[in-house]
Amino acid sequence: MPAKLALSRLRPKAGAPAALRRGAAVAAVLPLLALAACGYGSKAADRPADQQVAAGAEKIDGLDSVKIGYFGNLTHGTALVGVRKGYFQKELGATAARYQVFNAGPSEIEALNSGSIDIGWIGPSPAINGYTKSGGKNLRIIGGSASGGVKLVVNPKKIKSLADVKGKKIATPQLGNTQDVAFLNWIAEQGWKVDAESGKGDVSVVRTDNKITPDAYRSGSIDGAWVPEPTASKLVAEGAKVLLDEADLWPDKKFVITNIVVRQEFLDQHPKAVEAVLRASVEANKWINANPDEAKAAANEQLEADSGKALPAAVIDPAWKSIRFTDDPLAATLDTEARHAVKAGLLEKPDLNGIYDLTLLDKVLEAEGAAAVDDAGLGAK
Questions:
Q1: SS3 69
Q2: What is the pLDDT confidence band of residue 133, given thresholds at 50, 70 and 90?
Q3: CA 109, CA 40: separation in Å to the nearest integer?
Q4: Does the structure show a pLDDT above 60 at 8?
Q5: For residues 127 and 334, what is the distance between their CA atoms, to the nearest angstrom?
Q6: What pLDDT sits at residue 321?
Q7: C-alpha dist (Å) from residue 233 to 151, 299, 317, 328
Q8: Quick check: 359 and 272 in contact, CB under 8 A?
Q9: Which of the four, 2, 19, 149, 250, has the lowest number of CB atoms within 10 Å?
Q10: Does 125 or 171 have the greater pLDDT score?
Q11: Does the pLDDT value for residue 7 go beyond 50?
């Protein structure tokens, strides 16, 4: 089972090799340099014309707006559908829902810390990193969103079995990101050796931005990739084959890939607004699971609005099927990810006590007649 904590933002375990310590330090600096060069790496999302504020609606907590962040990824489908179908605006009443689309976890965490957004959909590693770097003061995970949607896809002419991965060039999105560390951990479980910093060893780990991974595959510079959707299905459309679905490495095939986080200050000051967004998220997930084809189309429409390009059916159809949308944050899997990273000797154990505050989510779920979710003992004290 993979450990998926980012190397780039947490402190290496004492006594780790100098190269690993240098790699962690360099990786920690690079996202900050990127942020300085291009702001938060985000843009305002398009809001459909039919999402106007209802007549007679009132502001929540006296707020003019609530600023919501998410990625233009299918694993953030709850947010994509929530925006497209107007769930957030409906629940916020006369308080405007404002959206920002991000390209990377560090930039969204930076925006959250600065107050540029209030609530965000984000992956497990950035959430852990943001929490630990602030000493547990800046954010809380308040709900779940998605599980799955990560695959090892390979060139079938070069790799026919898992054993054939040895000696090949496999891409991950970024040094120390969620998929990178998951792949490094899987490599270690095979008994193979790879230097985490350089990616060199029994397998060549090639850090490649998801946007250019299909081009790298097409050119032959990589033999496969351990990547999230829709990148995995884009590679399959180029002739790659799925060799391993990460969900198969987890009990019940469930592991957290997207959570909902909030600024701690915003949660303390505006709980009604946070509850409204969680209500919208629960409604969006309910609709997604009841109407998968319509939900897929809505998510694709929002992707097109955000990026200017919709995904073709050959990509979105298999990608959408591999993602499970859930209100449960799957807290136990987040804790397992952390413990596996420690067991691998990559990191000191982060203190995750208090990272979850599921009080408002449980309130929303109770109103829906649904069961409360578990925080795996990592809830706010």
A1: strand
A2: confident
A3: 9
A4: no
A5: 10
A6: 95
A7: 9, 16, 9, 25
A8: no
A9: 19
A10: 171
A11: no
Which amino acid, 275?
Answer: E
pLDDT at 380 over 60: yes
Alpha helices in 85-227 (DSSP H): 87-92, 105-114, 124-133, 178-189, 213-219
The amino acid present at 32, given as its one-letter code, is L
Pairwise CA distance, residues 69 & 92, whole Å: 15
Give Cβ neighbours of residue 275 (< 8 Å, ≥ 6 apart): 360, 363, 364
DSSP E strand boundaries for the chain: 42-44, 65-71, 96-102, 119-122, 139-148, 150-154, 169-172, 204-207, 224-228, 241-245, 256-263, 323-325
Sheet holding 323-325: strands in order across?
A: 42-44, 96-102, 65-71, 119-122, 256-263, 139-148, 323-325
**What's the pLDDT band for 28 if we cut at 50, 70, 90?**
very low
Cβ–Cβ < 8 Å for 47, 79: no
For residue 308, is it left (φ>0), alpha (ψ between -120 and 50) or beta? left
Q: Quick one: tokens of 274? A: 């946070």
Classified as helix, coil or strand, 34 is: helix
Contact 303, 221 (CB under 8 A): no
Place of tokens 């990824």: 73
- Mean per-residue pLDDT, 33-38: 31
pLDDT band for 303, please (50, 70, 90 cuts).
Answer: very high
Single-letter amino acid, residue 37: A
Read off the pTM. 0.83
Which pair of tokens denotes residue 32? 């900050």
Angstrom distance (rounded) from CA 40 to CA 238: 31
